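Reopening this one. Same input as before:
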Amino acid sequence: MSNNSLSDINYSLLDLAVITEGDSVVDAISKSRDLAQYVEELGYTRFWMAEHHNMENIASSATSVLLGHMAEATDNLRIGSGGVMLPNHSPLVIAEQFGTLATIYGDRIDLGLGRAPGTDQTTAQAIRPDRMRQVQQFPKNVQKLQQYLSAENSSASVRAIPGEGTEIPIWILGSSTDSAHLAAALGLPYVFASHFSPQQLHAALQVYREKFEPSDQLDKPYVMPCINVIIANTDEQAEYLSTSLKQMFMAVVTGERNPMPPPVDDINTVWNLRTKMTVQQMLKYTFVGSKETVEKQLSDFIEKTEADEIMTATYIYDHDQRLKSHKLFSEIMRNQ
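Same output, byte for byte:
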């Protein structure tokens, strides 16, 4: 359990290699690499990237490839998936991919696993026609993946080479009590997607903690909720910068997944009331403001969730402003 003090818990970062309006895919990947190097110096624990497909505003579809690019650019930062959507893949192939990363970069690779498609249903069908059956197999496939990564698998007829014996830490990602039950049953750390699906956060954390069974990887529950954070010099500037994030989520609601647009002076000129209400519900755990404002919001959130670690997603159109927001966040967490 967390002792609810900001300076005593780790802080990490989720990145999607977001493509902003006017930038290329190359620009997005280059900025993600720059961000990874920057936050390593700021004391961040992890830099995770998420698998998404068929989206003009996200370049992290080949997640394991990009993670190698980030690991190569850093020295001590933990690099991982937040997450790999396991029903899209063979557990053996993921064991080989991440086992290769761990073989090259050592003990700083994390493997976060989710069961959502990470895309629309048509694309999900193109990725894997039997995907729905694989969703039902998700718990068994997590265990199969663990087996491939274990040293004990050396006598099996099917082996992950590289991968075998790397014992890469596995995390369960989710946004419902279903994922909480699985993480608890397997004794794995749990990441909740409260940055876009906040409704079941507290119920899921309660289930996870009550049902947790110790494992070889973890002896007690470990919770890392993800939140959106945008920090600037003033509340007003942060609110202005946050309009890009709101437009990005508005595009998710409307199905128009264009590159992330620049901020606007008045977001109410862009969305209607129904879209506004939907986006605001999705962004319930989005902390926007000056350092002082966000620190109060964050302290309250950590007290209520008893988070062991916090993961942040920061979507800002201007790369320099994004770097600055991450710097200010690290100052909050380090009590500077």
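So the earlier flakiness isn't reproducible anymore. For the record, Residues 330 and 336 are 8 Å apart (CA to CA).
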